[in-house]
């Protein structure tokens, strides 16, 4: 546990968190500043700042929890869909350095847009550039 981490303190029960589900390695609780009713965060119990720091068995449990909880979140607020995402790193908008998966309920016509709204003016890469990037990811 990181003493100065707000999510570690919620997981530990030190501060109130509106926890909605728990598994061996994951805890889900309501976001304090929701983007929509039912906005839920799913976090690993242990303190890991970035996704790649989570051991694979704990990551599997985390994403298993995401899989199992999403339906309940959608149903509880009578939503039409759910946007699921991680701001993985500061440049991606991560403000709390304890990895968390956002489950944001979505409603027809809510105007929130898809993930493509992150960078609507991105340039289409050439086939060669796509090949190069795919190679780089495979190599890494
Ligand atoms: P990030 O920008 O790091 O991906 O998202 C952090 C999220 O944590 C935000 O949606 C924010 O509303 C939420 N948050 C920040 N502080 C607290 C808190 O003390 N309790 C809860 N439940 N959520 C918080
Ligand atoms: Zn933490």
UniProtKB/TrEMBL annotation:
- UniProt-recorded Gene Ontology molecular function terms: catalytic activity
Q: From the record, which residues define motif Histidine triad motif?
A: 98-102
Q: Which SUPFAM superfamilies match?
A: HIT-like
Region of interest: Disordered: 111-130
Where is the catalytic site?
100 (tele-amp-histidine intermediate)
Family annotation (Pfam families): HIT (PF01230)
Record-level GO BP terms: nucleotide metabolic process
Please state every residue range assigned to the domain named HIT: 6-113
Q: What is this protein called?
A: Histidine triad (HIT) family protein
Natural source organism: Halolamina pelagica
């Amino acid at each position: 546990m990181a003493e100065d981490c707000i999510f570690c303190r919620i997981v530990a029960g030190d501060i109130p968190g509106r926890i909605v589900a728990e598994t061996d390695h994951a805890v889900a609780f309501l976001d304090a500043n929701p983007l929509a009713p039912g906005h839920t965060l799913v976090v690993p119990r242990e303190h890991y700042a970035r996704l790649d720091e989570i051991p694979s068995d704990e990551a599997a449990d985390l994403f298993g929890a995401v899989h199992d909880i999403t339906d309940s979140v959608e149903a509880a607020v009578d939503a039409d869909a759910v946007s699921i995402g991680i701001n993985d790193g500061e440049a991606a908008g991560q403000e709390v350095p304890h990895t968390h998966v956002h489950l944001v309920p979505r409603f027809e016509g809510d105007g929130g847009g898809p993930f493509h709204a992150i960078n609507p003016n991105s340039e289409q890469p050439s086939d060669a550039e796509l090949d190069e990037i795919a190679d780089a990811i495979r190599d890494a």
